[in-house]
Write a structure and sequence with these properties.
heterodimer; A: alpha/beta; Rossmann fold; 6-stranded mixed β-sheet; 6-stranded parallel β-sheet; 16 helices; about 35% helix; B: about 375 residues; mainly alpha; ABC transporter involved in vitamin B12 uptake, BtuC
Chain lengths: ~450, ~375
């Protein structure tokens, strides 16, 4: 296969929209049998590249060759016989029956002044059957769902009998089952003689799973080109998509897959100096802190946790996030070592959150250790009012809570209230406030 | 004239792929097509019997039959009615020299406007496009009127009229095409461009008519249309012009079908969208100018006919264009007959009843917009 001539060759392609550059100096060549995914954030130039290859936008500089012939020397009909396009979206003006819609793909094969013949009908039937829509051939194109319409467009592209298939985000209107089905179909199709598929794909996990090659665009430039294994790295995801992600390897396929950590790093809360806010120390146990940890992590706060028991749900959550934490063996009182670690984390924290965990003699220290910090930095109880019900220390825990509330700690009802307060309080220097008259502090213990 | 497009569709080979399910839809369209053609034939016959001079139907039928058969019937033209030979000669002149050309001109004018309307709606991807609303008709009328003002080519008026009209219509067509290509173009801007062009040309037309000292131009004829002056020569010229342009437009209907997917998708499927647009506007302007040159400006025929056809026969332009010719002819002949029956003894221009009906339909289309004009947001 390596000796075969490229089906599509692009050299030094630059496309400009007025003063704006859509694609800059892109060189790419695609050989028969390849399924190439174009990846990159929105506006990176994937769609512009595809449109330029189709001749829908003029190239300011560079060369595009289709099967060895320069694009400019090909008539529109000739182009349509060599390249089929599946646009991202199509707004049909008339409610054309699906069979006729698919027959539109035969336009370039039917000479002028002629109508479609039996061969064209046979091709359309074959294509419609392959996307399981033959039974709906008489329905109007307006009458089918978004996913079905996408399959109609694919069927139309297949009837063009073109060796090069260009797709623009073909999975964007499809549910997961149909996404996999479509990509499987493309993968099988490109194995045919002298065919290739070039598709813009947002979903990197689909791209790595199905593509032979991933081509990454960033700000109009081609920044990476190679097999998914070699191309995708955490550094690339950070520099191109601005996303912190972990790249793992699928044990069965050996292919990389991506787990984004924080969806949009840019939206993470930052202080006046532009630094990320935190660290925030979360005290939990028994799974009580997991929801809170996840929510704060999603928001982008820097977090620490402690003292948590090994094998505890909260511990697992914090481990997944790679948080620094103080850990103790399960079902044993908090020892001196864990206590010291925890103290260091507490001292470094800009704010402390007490999750609604059950307090017994073994973990009472978790509350007591926080006491000196109340008044020094913001301390928040999550649902502190319910402590009476989870206090198994003969009221000792409740008394510690009340002293903290008196020193300026606050009791918040929900995690969303917590994130709001953290954004507000961490943005400016902390000043201990008087004890708000909460019902909890008013009640005698 | 209709044969070029419609037979082509019917000729599609029934290969292995020819779907069975589609047969039911096909049967309905075929039945509807027969209804249209039957209606047109009936109206054609009825129209010949109607005229401003009361003549017995039997006499009219005699004269027409005799003429069609080249005088082969025994007993002369007026055999069933006991009239003198001299009176018979007058009747023949009225029926064969006036009524029949009028009706045939009406048929051809309606066909021309229907074909133009359907083609323009396909080109602009806009169901409100129409030679009248886009200013093509008034452009053609000004072109034709210029002939009288400038006194050029009046000796061969039957030939130079369509030519001048074509120049005017083409001017309007290209202005509208430029407007449609602008990135700011919407349905509204396109229609308003047409309104502006129409107003401009109507003003020019009135001016031309005021300065026309010979008085051989009638304001009402040019602004509202009329079939009164029809001659056999005109019928011949319009027939050849409309048949040629109409057949070409119908054959190119396949290109218009693909254009409905948007210029980019059409191009990716092999259509030279730009060429198709310019070619269609050229042909539609030419087709319109044959109608306007001899029958003035008749509005709304081109707007309404394609909608009726799409309802009855589906959206394939290879069928919509020729069938719009038939429906356009029905509208113009119907309007003529209505004017004759409702306002006997007066010369109400054929454009008046057409405008009444067309304006109401236009408003209906405008306010039904979400379903008839737009594409659905999502199925």
């Amino acid at each position: 296969m390596t000796e075969s001539k490229p089906l599509l060759e692009v050299a030094g392609l630059t496309v400009r929209y007025g003063p704006r550059t859509g694609v800059q100096n892109v060189t790419l060549s695609i050989r028969p049998g390849e399924l190439v995914a174009l990846a990159g954030p929105n506006g990176a130039g994937k769609t512009t590249f595809v449109r330029a290859v189709l001749g829908l936008v003029p190239a300011a500089e560079g060369r595009i060759s289709i099967q060895g012939t320069p694009l400019s020397e090909l008539s529109f009909r000739e182009r349509a016989r060599r390249m089929a396009w599946l646009p991202q979206e199509e707004q049909p003006q008339e409610n054309v029956p699906i069979l006729d819609y698919v027959l539109f793909g035969r336009y370039a094969h039917v000479p002028p002044f002629y109508s479609e013949g039996s061969r064209d009908f046979a091709r359309a039937e074959e294509a419609l059957r392959s996307v399981d829509l033959w039974d709906r051939r008489d329905s109007g194109i307006w009458e089918v769902s978004g996913g079905e319409r996408q399959r109609v467009l694919l069927a139309r592209a297949l009837t063009q009998d073109a060796p090069i298939l260009l797709l623009d985000e073909p999975t964007s209107h499809l549910d997961i089952a149909h996404q996999l089905e479509l990509l499987d179909r493309l993968k099988r199709w490109r194995q045919g003689a002298d065919r290739c598929v070039v598709t813009a794909l947002h979903d990197l996990n689909l791209a790595t799973r199905y593509a032979d090659r991933v081509v990454v665009f960033s700000r109009g430039r081609l920044v990476e080109d190679g097999p998914p294994n070699e191309v995708l790295s955490a550094a690339l995801l950070r520099s191109v998509w601005n996303v912190d992600a972990e790249i793992r390897r699928d044990a069965r396929t050996g292919l990389p897959y991506i787990i984004p950590m924080i969806p949009h790093h840019l939206e993470a809360p930052r202080g006046a100096s532009g630094r990320l806010l935190g660290p925030i120390h979360v005290v939990g146990g028994g799974g009580a802190a997991s929801a809170c940890l996840r929510a704060l992590h999603e928001e982008g706060f820097l977090l620490t946790a402690g003292v948590l028991a090994l094998l505890d749900t909260d511990t697992q959550t914090a481990e997944e996030m790679g948080l620094p934490m103080a850990v103790e063996a399960p079902f044993s009182p908090i020892g001196e070592e864990a206590r010291q670690e925890n103290r260091q984390l507490l001292a470094a924290a800009q704010a402390i959150v007490l999750a609604p965990f059950a307090v017994g003699p073994a973990n009472l220290a978790n509350l007591e250790e926080v006491l000196p910090f109340a008044g020094q930095c913001p301390v928040y109880f999550l649902d502190g009012a319910s402590l009476e019900q989870r206090d198994f220390t003969d009221g000792q825990a409740t008394r510690v809570r009340d002293r903290m509330l008196a020193a300026g700690a606050k009791d918040l009802e929900s995690v969303s209230e917590l994130t709001e307060r953290l954004r507000a309080d961490l943005g400016r220097p902390y000043r201990a406030l008087g004890n708000p008259a909460t019902p909890a502090s008013a009640s005698p213990s | 004239m209709l044969a070029g497009g419609s037979s082509r569709v019917a000729d599609v080979p029934k290969g292995a792929g020819e779907p069975q399910l589609r047969a039911s839809g096909r049967r309905t369209s075929r039945r509807n097509l027969l209804v249209i053609l039957g209606g047109l034939a009936t109206l054609l016959l009825g129209s010949v019997l109607l005229g401003d001079v009361p003549i017995p139907y039997s006499t009219i039928l005699d004269i027409v039959a005799q003429r069609l058969l080249g005088g082969a019937l025994p007993g002369g033209a007026c055999v069933t009615s006991s009239v003198s030979a001299s009176r018979c000669a007058i009747l023949v002149k009225i029926v064969w020299g006036t009524y029949v050309p009028q009706v045939l001109l009406g048929l051809l004018v309606g066909a021309a406007l229907g074909v133009s309307g359907a083609s323009l709606q396909g080109t602009f991807r806009n169901p409100l496009a129409d030679p009248y609303l886009l200013g093509l008709s008034s452009g053609a009328a000004v072109g034709a009127a210029l002939l009288f003002v400038l006194h050029i080519g009046l000796g061969v008026a039957n030939l130079s009229l369509p030519l001048f009209a074509f120049a005017g219509a083409l001017f309007s067509g290209l202005v509208v095409l430029l407007a449609a290509r602008s990135p700011k173009s919407t349905v509204t801007t396109l229609l308003l461009t047409g309104v502006a062009l129409s107003s401009f040309f109507s003003a020019l037309l009135v001016l031309a008519l005021l300065y026309n000292v010979n008085g051989d131009l009638q304001v009402s004829f040019w602004l509202l249309g009329g079939l009164e002056g029809a001659t056999w020569t005109q019928v011949g010229i319009v027939l050849s012009g409309v048949a040629t342009t109409g057949a070409l437009l119908a054959i190119y209907g396949r290109d218009l079908n693909l254009l409905q997917l948007g210029p980019d998708v059409a191009q990716s499927l092999g259509v030279n969208a730009r060429r198709v647009r310019i070619r269609t506007i050229l042909l539609a302007s030419l087709c319109t100018s044959f109608a306007v040159a001899f029958a003035g400006v008749i509005g709304f025929v081109g707007l309404v006919s394609p909608h009726v056809v799409r309802r009855l026969l589906g959206v394939d332009y290879r069928r919509v264009i020729p069938a719009s010719a038939a429906v356009g002819a029905i509208f113009v002949l119907g309007a003529r007959d209505l004017a004759l029956v409702a306002f006997p003894g007066t010369e109400v221009p054929v454009g008046v009843p057409m405008a009444f009906a067309g304006a109401i339909f236009f408003l209906y289309l405008l306010y039904r917009r979400p379903t008839t004009l737009g594409t659905p947001t999502s199925a």
